[in-house]
Amino acid sequence: MVKQTIQIFARIKPTKVSKAGLYDITEEQDGCMLNFTLPRELSEGLVNNKRESFKYRFEQIFDQSAKQDEVFEQVARPVVDNVLQGYNGTIFAYGQTGSGKTFTITGGPEKYSDRGIIPRTVSYIFDHQSKSSDFEFTTHVSYLEIYNENGYDLLDPKHEASKLEDLPKVSLMEDSKQNIHLRNLSTHKASTEEEALNLLFLGDTNRMIAETPMNQASTRSHCIFTIHVSAREAGSATIRRAKLHLVDLAGSERVSKTGVNGVLLTEAKYINLSLHFLEQVIVALGERTRSHIPYRNSMMTSVLRDSLGGNCMTTMIATCSIEKRNLAESISTCNFAQRVALIKNDAILNEELDPKLVIARLKREVEQLKEELAMATGVQRSEELSEEDLERCEDAVRQYLEDRDPDSVINIGADMRKIHRCFHLLKKQIKAPPSGQQAERQRQAEREEALPRAPAESSEVSRLQQLISQRDNEINILVNMLKKEKKRAADAAARLHSLNPEQLQRLTDSRSSEMSVTQSRASVDSSIGAKNSELRMGEMSLGRQEAFETFRRDYQKKHPIEDSKRELKMKYAEAKGLGEKVNVTRGKINKLKSSLEQHRMSRVMQGLVDPENPEPDEMEMEMRSQMETEKQSYKEAFAHLRSLKTEIEHSQHLLEKSKVQLMKDFEIWWAEQTAALQVNAMHKPRLIASFIFIQEKQSRLNGGHRSAWRTPSSRASSLSTENSRVSGPSSAFFCTQSTSRQASLYPDSVVDQAAGLIPLTGDAKADADIMAFMRARQHIAQQGLLFLSSACLMFASVCLFFSSKSKVTGRGI
Ligand SMILES: Nc1ncnc2c1ncn2[C@@H]1O[C@H](COP(=O)(O)OP(=O)(O)OP(=O)(O)O)[C@@H](O)[C@H]1O
C-alpha cells in the first residue's frame, strides 16, 4: 500500500498584461511558493478581508511560459507510471472559467504542441506497452460528462448528439460492498494509440456539439476521461488492473460574480453546488476525526470517491489567472488547493488472479494428483484418454524420436494409460514400412556398406559426392529464389487487379508508402467528426447556406482554421517527402540485399567459400556495412514518419473540432438574428407584404416549396430585407444577400415596387386580398411569366390603391 497526500500543482495562465508585482514564484526546499500581492483597492473589495499578501505552497508552479510537455512530464507522467504498475490514478484541474483547465487537460485548439495531458497520456501508455513485450496489455476508455447533476455518455456510438439530452444518461449504482458503478456508461477497447485518440476526439466533438448555447462561453459541466489498463506478464495468472481518471471540472467562480439568470443561473447553482459538495468532502477528509464523508451528495464526488481519500494516487492542478479582475478567484482556487493537499490516500496494488488461468492450472494439478494416486495405490484409471492427452502423447514420442541426444527420455507423467499409449506409438513406428525417402536413404547406405573400395578411390568418390550435394544445394537455392520472385509478381498482379481506379491512383501516388495506408485510415476515422458538420451543411436551405458562407468569411476564429489548414498542408508535404525517402531507402536496402546474395552465390559457385560456413570477404563486409547505414536511416525516417502521422491525425482532429465550433457559432448567430427580426416584425405589421414577397421569392430559390417559407430560417432571411432598412448594421448580411438574389431574378424596379408600393392597409379584407394576390403572383412568376406578373402587379397596385381610397372616402370606383 502506498500512503500519499494528494499532490498539488499550480499553473498560471499566460496574459498580455504585465504581472506588475501581482504575484511571484519562489522555489523552496520542499516545493514552490506562490505569492499574490493584492493592490489595496482589491484586497478591500473582492476578498473579504484586508490582507494584501497571500502565500501558497505547491509541489511545483508552472509560470506563464510553461509548455505542455513540461506539465505532462512533471504532473502526469508519475501518475501514469503508477497506473501502468497497477495503481489507480486521478489528475484533476480546478480553477475559474477560462483559467486554462481544458487547455491543460485536453489541449489547445490550434497547435499539435498544445496537446494536453489526455492525448499525451494516451501516447505514453501505448508507447510503454509497445516496449514491454513481456506483458500483455488491454486498454479501455470511457468518457463521462456531468451536467446539472446528470451523467451523459460522450462515447455512445449509436447516437449522433445534437444536444446533451440525445446522449445516453448515465446513472449511479451501488453494490452491496458500497462500490459505485456507472450504469449506461460505455467502455471501449482501444488496441492502438490511434483508436484511443479517435475516441477522445469523438467524445470532445460530442461534448462541443451538445453544449447548450447558454454555456458556450464556459464549460459548465464536469468531464471525466477514464483509461482502464490491465496488464499480465506472459505465463502468469496475475492481472493488474488500474484506472486513470483525467478530470476537467467546471469553472469554480462564485455565482454572485457570474451575474447570471435563468438557465445559466440553474447551471451555476448546480456547478457551485457540486463544487461545494466536493469542498465538503475535502474538508471532511481533512478532519481526522470525521467518520462520515459525504460522497453521496453529488454525482461527481460519488464517481471520484476512490480518488479522494481512497485507493488512488491523486494529483490536482490549480489553474490561475493573474489578471486583476481574476485575482480573487485565483486566491480562492489556491485556498481550495491547500485543503486538498491535506487529504491522504491509500493506494493499493490492484492485482487479481485471472479466473480462467487459475482454473486451467488447478485442472492440471488435479490430473497430476490423480496420476500419482493411481501409481501409489496400484488402482489404475480406466477412463479413455482425452483427445488432448492423445495428442500430447504423439508429440512426446515424435520429439523423443527426433532428439539426437541418446540420453533423452519421454516425459509423459505417471499415468499408465499414457505410458501404454507411448509404447504403442513407438511400436507402430518400428513396424511401419519406411517411407519412400527413408527407404531410398536406407538402400543407399546399404549399397555403400556393401561396396569394397580402395582408400584413394573412396576419397575421390566422397569429394565428388560432396561436390554433387553442393551443386544440389545451389540448384535448390536458385529454384527457391525463382519461385519466390514468381509468387511476388503474381501477388502484386492480383492486388493491382483487385484495386478500383481510385485506389490505383492512390497506389501510384508517391504517398503509397506505409504512410498512405495509415493516413487514409486516419482520414476515415476523422470523418466521424466531419460527418456532423457536413450533415448539417447538407440540411441547410440555400439561403442559409449562403448566410453560412458569409458568416464564415467574417468569422473571428477563421484564422486559426486557416492556420491549421496551412500547417496540415505543410505536414502532408513533409510526410510525402519522408514517405518517398523511406521508399528510396527501402529500395536501396533491397538492392543491397540481392547484390549480397548474388555475391555469396557466385563465391559458392566458384568454390571460393565453404557453403556450410561462409566467411565474408571484404566486398561482403563493405556491402553489409552499407546495408547497416541504410537500415539506420530507414529506421530514423520511419520513426519520424510515424510521429508525423500522429501529428497529422491530431491536426486533423483539431481542424474538425474547429469546423464543428464554427458550425455551432453560426447556429447561435443565426438564431439571434432570427429572434431579433421576429421582434421587429411584430412591431411592424404593415411590412408583412414585403415580408411575404421576399418569403415567396426565397421559397422559389429554395426550389419552390411553399412550406419552406414557414421555417424560421427563411422567415429570418425574408424579414431581413425590411430589417436591413429598419435596424441597420446588425442585419446587413441579410440585406446584401437578398439584394444580390433580387438582382439576378427580378429587375430592381419591380422589387422596389413590390416592396415599397404594396403596404398592408390595416383593413382585414383588403389585406387578405393583397396576400391572395401575392400568392397568385408568385404562381405566375413560377411559370416564368415574369413580365405578365409585373404588369399584374402594377395593375393590382392601382386597383388596390383606388379600393382603399374609396373605402376611406366612402365612395366606390
Ligand atoms: N497555458 C496556456 N497557454 C495558452 N493558452 C491558454 C493557456 N491556458 C488557457 N489558454 C487559452 O485560454 C482560453 C481559455 O482556456 P480554457 O478553455 O482551457 O479554460 P477553462 O478553465 O477550461 O474554462 P471553462 O471553465 O470555461 O471550461 C482558451 O482559448 C485557451 O486556449
UniProtKB/TrEMBL annotation:
Any single biological process term in GO: microtubule-based movement
Keywords linked to the UniProt accession: ATP-binding, Cytoplasm, Cytoskeleton, Membrane, Microtubule, Motor protein, Nucleotide-binding, Transmembrane, Transmembrane helix
Compositionally biased residues, Basic and acidic residues: 440-451
Chain sites annotated for binding ATP: 95-102
Localization terms from the record: Cytoplasm, Cytoskeleton
Gene Ontology cellular-component terms listed: microtubule
Any Pfam family: Kinesin
Sequence intervals crossing the membrane: 784-803
Top-level taxon in the UniProt lineage: Eukaryota
UniProt keyword Nucleotide-binding, yes or no: yes
Domain Kinesin motor: 5-343
InterPro entries: KIF6/9_C, Kinesin-like_fam, Kinesin_motor_CS, Kinesin_motor_dom, Kinesin_motor_dom_sf, P-loop_NTPase
Region (Disordered), start-end ranges: 430-463, 506-527, 703-725
Biased composition (Polar residues): 513-527, 710-725
GO MF annotation, one: ATP binding
The family this protein is said to belong to: Belongs to the TRAFAC class myosin-kinesin ATPase superfamily. Kinesin family. KIN-5/BimC subfamily.
Stated name of the protein: Kinesin-like protein
Species, as recorded: Capitella teleta
